[in-house]
Design goal:
Oligomer: heterotrimer
Radius of gyration of chain B: 22 Å
Number of helices of chain B: 15
Low-confidence stretches of chain B: 150-158, 331-336
Number of helices of chain C: 12
Distance between the termini of chain B: 56 Å
Order of helices and strands of chain B: EHHHHHHHHHHHHHHH
CATH class of the largest domain in chain C: Alpha Beta
Chains: A alpha/beta, B mainly alpha, C alpha+beta
Helix content of chain C: 25-40%
Mean pLDDT of chain B: 85
Largest sheet of chain B: none
Number of domains of chain B: 2
Number of domains of chain C: 2
Structural class of chain C: alpha+beta
Order of helices and strands of chain C: HHHHEEHHEEHEEHHEEHEHH
Largest interface: A-B, 71 and 45 residues
CATH architecture of the largest domain in chain C: 2-Layer Sandwich
Number of strands of chain B: 1
Strand content of chain B: under 5%
């Protein structure tokens, strides 16, 4: 029996249409739109001006605090304007527009990318590089990586978990990355182990990616400290807490962090970005994006420069198919529906999903029949039906008592509800209010 | 129509195929074997009672929603259909038509819609209807037609008692269990349904097939039926072991009366059962114990309908005390 | 037979007497002293329990009024000055006099002028759809049209106009409790002074986008052209982020700005209709309008930010 987390979880149709498509290089777009808020925390501060020439990899927005991150220009060119563009949050956000020139000058000495195994940097430099090079969690939450790696003295971390689960249906970006850059990922893991003095690392991969399990197991053969764990296919295994529970049987306490149980979790994409930053001096300026959908002609995976508008990518896979009614930034379970295709790719975009009209519309919500299905599938042991009612009626104190804030917003409850009730919509709203009330109290 | 616009909604953007309608129709499918057996055993009477119950339930729901509540009409969601079938399954096949219509009115009007419709009712509507009829018309409700094994024969008004009724009466007249045992149907007859009783509780086998279908289709979980039956088995088993002369074999208890119908179809009603697995187990143990207590000490030979209704009243309490274990709750957090 | 009737009657009365004694003892024993003034003040208050004063209900507000030394900061917006004056008489404390206010909707983006570009699916409440994205139209500042403000109004002073999809405030019923202002996730509703004839001039738009984008999203949007700022004789128009705001304190209701606005995004209410028509026909300021008796604009604390 393969490992998995014990409570809850669902198994939506995988629909991994692009798992056999190797990652293609997306041509450099004519212009990039780089938002300054691409990570959780304080938005970065713009340090370039209009008409300024920038070189590829140059910092264009500086980290605005500890929980923040630098932003680098993914292309060489000229800053044409500082504009407001709708991003995947659905609101207009400040972003830097850069027109690409043909010279493609680089700021950093980016080497041609042969595998570079020896780690020559010392621990302090590695952490500094990760901070400077704008590395954030590429799994979707975009949490600045240096914050995760900033260990306090009382945190005893003994295990590094690498998240290669990719439990979202449709998405295959991490899968392809693991297949094609296995050696680099292993070196990336070794860098982190070296920097944090961790003796053990486990790569968690769901068993629907058997080839990736094999390739990575082969790549880490020479290093006894690294292991690969194949996991049962179950959503939301890619969630940090569920992954730790599945692999190590440790339970992150309520309102706690993985560090509290001696674990650090990083996505494989992040590990690859760290490898690039440390070994090849390349800041985080591109990432793998899956462009998929049932009606998309040439659905595939791409290396995309941050800031490329989504419409360029859609053009690349053969244009928006007839009858498209929803475009999702991310996977179908946790992704955000976007308003138009001008939205740029950010550090957190792991996929673009195009949904046609039959599947796009929500069904009408009916009465709750109290079947308890939402309670069974909730991986956090919550009662979604109750939380929805409490937040609908504005009983936020009770909702807080019922642990509404521990909801990981995986959407399993809304997925299974036979009455199509908008459970997560209300819970997410209630959660935000409860959090707001709590901060006001303090 | 205007051109279709891009749809924006919050995640998740996919949904499972389960709908409440499908769940309801799965229950209907699961009830078909039991219905076929009753049709075979009771002939045309079963068909009349069932169809009257279904039609009157749906019609009452439509009329009440249309003219009294003036709300959305939900007769097609299948819940009124199930209430009708279950109500019919819980009455004798010789029940006068007007009585079943009254029962339907009570089930739909009082037990379901006055609480707010599907999902808000505290008590199982079909059982409320059944108990109402049992209390108001005890004679007609316990007048069981004898089984007609031969299809061509016409149901006559000869009273065939239920197995549990035979036992209860026998004990009342001071007969020993051996004498009583010779009167009651064999276990095989109970399994196949060659016995007296309400319309749908005839064949244990047919009910089992339906129940297993529901579990396979994941409409219900095993927790309620299995716990309920095991509780009854253990409870009656203890009595039987202590005094086999006064108490009947526990297998008879499980296979006779409404035990199986109640365990698989009534107690598991999604709306009126607890929402956590722990709660379901407590709920089912409660039903099991109350049922046996009524069978042994109560005035009625059968008590599962009362037992389910009594435990239905406890469901909100069970829901608020037996909560699922929160992830990460038992470990001391450094942050707090 | 008679005996049993007598017996039950006696038993029942006995139970009644015992219960009465217990009740009496308990009420004596657990008696809580309450200042009779609180009840008296509570009787004066409107009993709407709207929480517009900041307290959770009228009773709590009465306790606060009685318990606080200086009550000049406290005010019942529903009862207004009359009620506060009565409270002042009862308590013998000084109360502040505030000018009546009324809620106004600072958005004119109805369905006809602000086309929908996307379709929202999900719970129809402004607070939730505002979390998901910027709204069905291209304007992310305007009304979402799901009626949270209408739902919180305790006084039936608001309704949704089905044609435009915008809420409408019935000024006569509005008690200025401020519930709608708090409920709106976009801060579109604002409390503005209401004078005797309920004359108001305000910008009916909150769009901070650049002119072209704003105009494209909504034909009555404020495009930030500053014309109103230039013409205002009292410097009551403040320009910020491509958006004008009329300061209700400084504004003298001269209506000059209404005429110059190229997108009709300045709303004026309850002015004589005929004159408005004349003013609209001629681009230049009409003399009759300027000579109009000026209403005394009183100071008012702003409840929302511009």
């Amino acid at each position: 029996m393969l490992k998995t987390f014990p409570k809850g979880g669902i198994h939506p149709k995988e629909n991994k249409l692009t798992s056999s498509e190797s990652i293609k290089m997306m041509p450099t777009p004519k212009a990039v739109y780089v938002p300054i808020a691409q990570h959780i925390g304080i938005p970065a501060e713009i340090i370039v001006e209009r008409k300024e020439k920038v070189k590829k990899g140059q910092v264009i927005a500086k980290s605005g605090g500890f929980v923040s991150s630098n932003i680098h220009t993914p292309v060489a060119g000229t800053v044409t304007k500082l504009d407001m563009i709708i991003d995947s949050s659905g609101y207009k956000k400040q972003c830097i527009v850069i027109r690409t020139d043909q010279k493609d000058e680089t700021n950093h000495e980016i080497l041609d990318f042969p595998l570079k195994k020896e780690i020559i940097m010392n621990q302090k430099d590695i952490l500094q590089h990760i901070t400077d090079f704008g590395i954030v969690g590429l799994g979707g939450a975009t949490f600045p990586s240096h914050v995760k790696l900033d260990l306090k003295n009382d945190n005893h971390v003994d295990c590094l978990l690498i998240n290669g689960v990719e439990c979202e249906p449709y998405l295959t970006a991490d899968h392809r990355l693991m297949l094609e850059k296995a050696d680099e990922i292993i070196v990336g893991i070794q860098i982190l182990m070296h920097a944090l003095h961790i003796k053990k690392a486990i790569i968690g991969i769901e068993n629907n990616k058997k080839d990736a399990v094999k390739v990575l197991a082969k790549a880490c053969k020479h290093d006894k400290r690294i292991k690969v764990a194949a996991l049962q296919v179950k959503y939301p295994q890619g969630s940090e807490k569920q992954l730790i529970k599945a692999i190590l049987k440790r339970e992150v306490p309520k309102n706690g962090l993985p560090m509290d149980v001696g674990v650090i979790v990083h996505n494989v994409g992040t590990i690859y970005a760290i490898y690039q930053a440390i070994q090849h001096n390349q800041p985080l300026i591109e990432r793998v994006v899956t462009v998929t959908g049932k009606n998309i002609k040439d659905a595939s995976n791409f290396w995309v420069k941050i800031g490329t508008p989504i419409k360029d990518l859609i053009e690349e896979v053969g244009g928006l198919p007839e009858g498209t009614r929803k475009i999702v930034n991310g996977g179908p379970m946790m992704g955000k529906a976007i308003k138009n295709t001008d939205v740029p790719i950010t550090k957190g975009t792991s996929g673009i999903l195009v949904i046609s009209s039959e599947e796009a519309s929500r069904k009408e919500a009916k009465n709750c029949i109290r079947c308890g299905e939402c309670v069974f599938v909730c991986p956090m042991g919550l009662e979604p039906h109750l939380l929805m009612n409490l937040s609908e009626k504005g009983m936020y104190e009770k909702a807080s008592y019922e642990d509404i804030t521990t909801c990981i917003e995986c959407g399993s409850c809304s997925y299974v509800c036979p009455s199509h009730r908008p459970l997560l919509d209300y819970i997410r709203f209630g959660k935000s209010i409860v959090k707001k009330l709590a901060t006001e109290k303090n | 129509m205007s051109e279709e616009k891009i749809v924006i909604s919050a995640s998740p953007h996919v949904h499972s195929d389960r709908t409440s309608k499908k769940l309801m129709y799965d229950v209907v499918i699961a009830l078909i074997p039991a219905f076929l057996v009753s049709l075979y055993v009771f002939g045309i009477g079963a068909l009349i009672v069932t169809s009257v119950a279904i039609i009157s339930c749906i019609v009452f729901e439509y009329l009440i929603q249309k003219f009294i509540l003036k709300s959305e009409i939900t007769i097609l969601d299948g819940s009124a259909l199930i209430t009708g079938i279950l109500l019919a399954f819980n009455v004798p096949s010789s029940l006068p038509i007007w009585m079943i219509i009254v029962g339907s009115l009570v089930a739909i009007g009082i037990a379901k819609l006055s609480f707010g419709g599907l999902g808000f009712n505290i008590f199982n509507p079909a059982l409320v209807g059944r108990v109402f009829l049992l209390v108001c018309f005890p004679v007609q409700m316990t007048l069981w037609p004898t089984p007609v094994v031969n299809n061509t024969a016409i149901v006559d008004a000869v009273t065939g008692e239920t197995t549990l009724g035979i036992i209860k009466n026998g004990l009342m007249y001071g007969e020993t269990m051996t004498t009583i045992a010779s009167k009651i149907p064999s276990t095989l007859d109970l399994l196949l349904g060659i016995t007296g009783g309400s319309l749908g509780e005839m064949s244990a086998l047919a009910l089992l097939i339906g129940g297993i279908y529901l579990i396979i289709r994941k409409v219900i979980t095993w927790h309620i039926p299995v716990t309920l039956l095991v509780t009854m088995l253990v409870f009656t088993g203890i009595y039987w072991l202590v005094d086999p002369e006064t108490y009947v074999n526990p297998m008879i208890h499980i296979l006779s009366g409404g035990a199986l119908l109640g365990a698989f179809f009534m107690a598991t009603d999604l709306v009126t059962s607890p929402m956590t697995k722990k709660g379901m187990v407590i709920f089912a143990i409660g039903i099991g114990i109350i049922t046996v207590v009524i069978r042994f000490y109560g005035a009625y030979p059968e008590g599962i309908s009362f037992a389910i209704l009594i435990m239905n009243a406890f469901v909100p309490l069970i829901n608020s005390y037996f909560k699922p274990r929160r992830f990460g709750n038992k470990i001391k957090s450094k942050i707090i | 037979m008679t005996l049993s009737i007598l017996y039950s009657a006696f038993l029942l009365s006995a139970i009644g007497v015992v219960a009465a004694i217990i009740l009496y003892i308990v009420s004596k024993k657990f008696y809580v002293y309450e200042d009779p003034l609180i009840a008296e003040v509570e009787d004066i208050l409107p009993a709407a329990n709207c929480a517009g004063c900041g307290s959770p209900g009228c009773k709590a507000f009465a306790e606060k009024l009685v318990g606080t030394e200086d009550i000049s900061e406290l005010f019942c917006p529903v009862g207004g000055n009359d009620v506060m004056k009565m409270v002042s008489e009862v308590l013998g404390k000084e109360v502040a006099e505030k000018d009546p206010t009324v809620a106004v909707l600072r958005c004119q983006g109805g369905c006809d002028v602000r086309p929908k570009t996307t379709e929202y699916q999900g719970p129809r409440t402004c607070s939730i759809s505002a979390m998901v994205y910027g709204g069905e139209t291209d304007c992310q500042y305007g009304c979402l049209g799901d009626g949270d403000c209408v739902n919180v109004c305790d006084f039936d002073a608001m309704y949704m106009d089905e044609k435009t999809g915008l809420p409408v405030i019935i000024t006569d019923k509005c008690t200025s409790c401020g519930a709608c202002v708090k409920a709106c996730p976009r801060d579109i509703l604002e409390m503005r002074p209401r004078n005797k004839r309920d004359l108001k001039i305000f910008i009916g738009c909150l769009n901070e986008d650049k002119g072209g984008i704003a105009k494209k999203a909504c034909s009555v949007a404020c495009i930030g052209c500053s014309k109103c700022e230039d013409i205002c004789p009292k410097d009551a128009v403040i320009m910020d982020n491509n958006l004008a705001y009329i300061d209700p304190i400084a504004c003298t209701l001269c209506r000059k700005c209404v005429v110059v606005c190229p997108t009709d995004s300045i709303i004026e209410t309850n002015f004589p209709p005929k004159k408005v028509k004349v003013a609209k026909d001629k681009p230049k300021v009409d003399k009759t309008k300027v000579d109009k008796p000026k209403e005394k604009v009183q100071s008012i604390k702003k409840t929302t930010d511009a």
